[in-house]
Amino acid sequence: MKIGIYARVLRPEQIPFMDDLLKLLKDRGIIIWMHKDFAEAFKNLKRVADFNLFDNNSLEQGSIDYLLSLGGDGTMLDTLTIVRDTNIPVLGVNMGRFGFLASSQKEDIAQTITELENKTYSIDKRTVLKLESDRTVFKHFPYALNDFVIHKKDTASMITVHSYVNGVFLNSYWSDGLIIATPTGSSGYSLSCGGPLVFPGSKSFVLTPIAPHNLNVRPAVISDDYILSFEIEGRTNSFLGTLDSRSVTVEKGTQLAIKKADFSFSMIRLQNESFMDTIRRKLMWGLDNRN
């Protein structure tokens, strides 16, 4: 079995965990692959395991069996740019506090590896969205697992986002911006702006305005078979566009469209884990605070 490891940083307090993980994988005869940027943290450290290196462009289907994402939700989102359309399953190991997308905690890593070895897990096929434009925007990888966000930039004034569904006018949002979220992203920025919680597998997009001026504007849920397109007006010549945690400046007048990508993201869900358990435990869904 071949397992890849990705993390953004290696903090001093995480070194004992990494020692244990690398030793565990070595003892079980698992071939270790490590992202080259993360491996830099090991350059001056004498560690117990040898490992191969990969980068954001080197993985192909079958290169590794699984990719471990060590960190929080931002780290998990990064892995989309690594696995791309290879269909390599990704498992989130929470190294911090929240870790909504993680299926495992670092304290349970031995049991987690056992489940991977025994294949006692499920794979959620998560929707990926694709950004298309008449200008060069996110030229290296115009895809997102969570959301695409249009946001005002360098101004206190609102922007106007004219929105269309399959070419038919939907609405003009006078607001600080607009979030287009997948079901995975519905529990993130969109939720904090009043959007609905959408279950994985719902085959939908969520449109959530950010601080809209119109009191009668509400979030909307539409089929992910639709193509969404946007025209943006504002007092400045540019605005901010983000795909997950990646942001760029987009010039006014740029034509933008969002559609479902032709590939999905394979997220591992371990035994005794479900979306309902996660939202109850981590979002305190339905928690009764009455004394």
Task: Describe it.
The chain has helices at residues 15-27, 36-39, 73-78, 80-83, 109-118, 189-192, 275-282; strands at 2-6, 31-35, 52-54, 66-71, 90-94, 104-105, 121-133, 143-144, 147-151, 159-165, 168-175, 177-181, 204-210, 220-223, 228-233, 238-243, 246-251, 256-270. The strands form 3 sheets. The protein has a 6-stranded parallel β-sheet with strand order 3-2-1-4-5-6. By secondary structure, the chain is α/β, with parallel strands linked by helices. The chain folds into 2 domains: 2-119, Rossmann fold (3-Layer(aba) Sandwich); 128-262, Probable inorganic polyphosphate/atp-NAD kinase, domain 2 (Tumour Suppressor Smad4), CATH 2.60.200.30. The model has no long low-confidence stretch (mean pLDDT 90). The longest helix is centred in the N-terminal third of the chain and has 13 residues, at 15-27. The radius of gyration is 20 Å and the shape is globular. It has 7 helices and 18 strands.
Features:
alpha/beta, Tumour Suppressor Smad4, 2 domains, six-stranded parallel beta sheet, Rossmann fold, six-stranded antiparallel beta sheet, 291 residues
